[in-house]
Amino acid sequence: MEQSEMLQFLQQVAQQKVSPEEALVKLKNTGFTELEYAKIDTERTVRTGYPEVIYGAGKTAAQIVGIVQAMKQQKQPILATRVTAKKAAAVLAQEPQLQYDQIAQTLRLPAAQIEQNGEIAVVTAGTSDINVAEEAAVTAEFFGNRVTRIYDVGVAGIQRLFSKLDLIRRANVVIVIAGMEGALTSVVGGLVDVPVIAVPTSVGYGSHLNGLTPLLSMLNSCAAGISVVNIDNGFGAAYNASMINHLAQGGKDE
């Protein structure tokens, strides 16, 4: 709690607008919920504007259920990423109100009303990149962004990209997802006047090195305005894109 907020709160106690019992509960708030295996950051939205997201890989279904239940008690929107279908089935058996997306491998329980503002374009080089793209798209929508999906427009048939340029240029930020040599990022970066976030994927043949080749290609792009996230990190790309989009939309609304 910031100093100004603390002062205002204590004034409410002095004015008997807040009871001493309510004040004690608030002052004892540590900002996280303690579980045996996790500490859930209940103040993240206040600090950053975005809620905590559950990283499902490495967690058991029982652990995900416990975290979900604790977050529900705090009335927080819920998004879990990297949840396999088998693990999701076990979670859904106890929390059937969650929505599972098998392609994106996400479980989510959105807030009652999510207003989607601005626009993010999610562009893939190939169909094999769609699982990463859907992780990005679902995350971006969860964070309150409109998403346009433009899939399978890689440089091997570049006319496919040109046919979708109007859609891509309409967005406030573009996420470009590519495996193989990652060339699509530089091409898109040279055709748009908005930030491009590049996501290398672990899709490709031997010397592709499980995503290292497109990662290095994207980092060395000669097109300006490109930032790069880690291999297969659709979530991270969507988070950054959401921040950019909300800033851009805020400027347009003024």
Automatic annotation (TrEMBL):
Entry's Gene Ontology BP terms: 'de novo' IMP biosynthetic process
Annotated PurE domain residues: 118-250
UniProt-recorded Gene Ontology molecular function terms: hydrolase activity
SUPFAM superfamilies given in the database record: N5-CAIR mutase (phosphoribosylaminoimidazole carboxylase, PurE) (SSF52255)
InterPro entries: P2CMN_synthase_LarB (IPR039476), PurE_dom (IPR000031)
Top-level taxon of the source organism: Bacteria
Pfam families: AIRC
Coiled coil: none
Protein name, entry field: Phosphoribosylaminoimidazole carboxylase catalytic subunit
